[in-house]
């Protein structure tokens, strides 16, 4: 069984400033809630279990938990009462629900990838990687990045700093949940803040320092559709007339 951890407690302020009243996971894009695109993108072929970290207010006011249970039956839902110190801190709120021995995916909750996660998982397992990172081509500093050596192995990661043109799509595979927790805890202890927040990608550097085998799986840019800001949604609507989830 593989675990999929999806922290979705982040702010939707750019959408709210445009008049949207719902939390980001429930914003409809071509008739489907945004989080459904992320769930469908990150759902593997075999046995799996989703773990969501949500805002308590979104559960109480908008019944987000009911939607998540419909989209991912059997999921575990953890809630936070207040803003955290960043995506890494949000993810760690689920630490008591992470099986330290089972494989783990940590995925963003605001994107759509056309072929889903399975091709990347197959690649990571075939290469016997400890950590696998899905990437696309970009140098825009809104993303996180990886740098590779001559053999294609990841030797460094960075947040909001284009150390290469290998940008991450927000999907991270760990051989087991214990590796994620260990890297995250070391990252917090070393105070690896970026813009006063803790992010997922810098924590992978702690595993690289341990000697972990870290690789990337690059997908064509045409297959990656971020939905995290209003401009992303506008681009998505320009690209699709109907939802790809209906095809």
TrEMBL record:
<dbReference type="InterPro" id="IPR005835">
    <property type="entry name" value="NTP_transferase_dom"/>
</dbReference>
<dbReference type="InterPro" id="IPR016873">
    <property type="entry name" value="Caps_polysacc_synth_BcbE_prd"/>
</dbReference>
<dbReference type="InterPro" id="IPR029044">
    <property type="entry name" value="Nucleotide-diphossugar_trans"/>
</dbReference>
<feature type="domain" description="Nucleotidyl transferase">
    <location>
        <begin position="10"/>
        <end position="181"/>
    </location>
</feature>
<dbReference type="Pfam" id="PF00483">
    <property type="entry name" value="NTP_transferase"/>
</dbReference>
<protein>
    <submittedName>
        <fullName>Nucleoside-diphosphate-sugar pyrophosphorylase</fullName>
    </submittedName>
</protein>
């Amino acid at each position: 069984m593989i675990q999929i951890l999806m922290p979705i407690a982040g702010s939707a302020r750019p959408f709210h400033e445009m008049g949207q009243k719902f939390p980001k996971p429930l914003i409809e894009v071509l008739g489907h809630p945004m989080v459904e695109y992320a769930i469908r993108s990150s759902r593997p072929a075999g046995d799996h279990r989703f773990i969501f970290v949500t805002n308590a207010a979104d559960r109480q006011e908008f019944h987000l938990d009911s939607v998540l249970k419909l989209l991912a039956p059997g999921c575990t839902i953890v809630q936070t009462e207040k803003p955290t110190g960043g995506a890494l801190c949000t993810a760690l709120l689920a630490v008591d629900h992470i099986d330290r021995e089972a494989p783990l995916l940590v995925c963003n909750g605001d994107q759509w990838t056309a072929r889903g996660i399975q091709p990347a998982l197959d690649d990571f397992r075939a290469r016997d990687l400890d950590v696998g990172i899905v990437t696309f081509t970009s140098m825009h500093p809104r993303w996180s990045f990886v740098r590779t050596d001559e053999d294609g192995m990841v030797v460094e990661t960075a947040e909001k700093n284009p150390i290469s043109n290998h940008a991450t799509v927000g999907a991270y595979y760990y051989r087991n949940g214990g590796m994620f927790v260990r890297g995250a805890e070391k990252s917090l202890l070393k105070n690896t803040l970026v813009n006063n927040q803790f992010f997922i990608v810098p924590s992978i550097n702690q595993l690289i320092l341990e000697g972990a085998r870290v690789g990337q799986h690059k997908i064509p840019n045409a297959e990656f559709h971020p939905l995290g800001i209003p401009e992303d949604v506008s681009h998505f609507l320009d690209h699709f007339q109907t939802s790809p989830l209906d095809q």
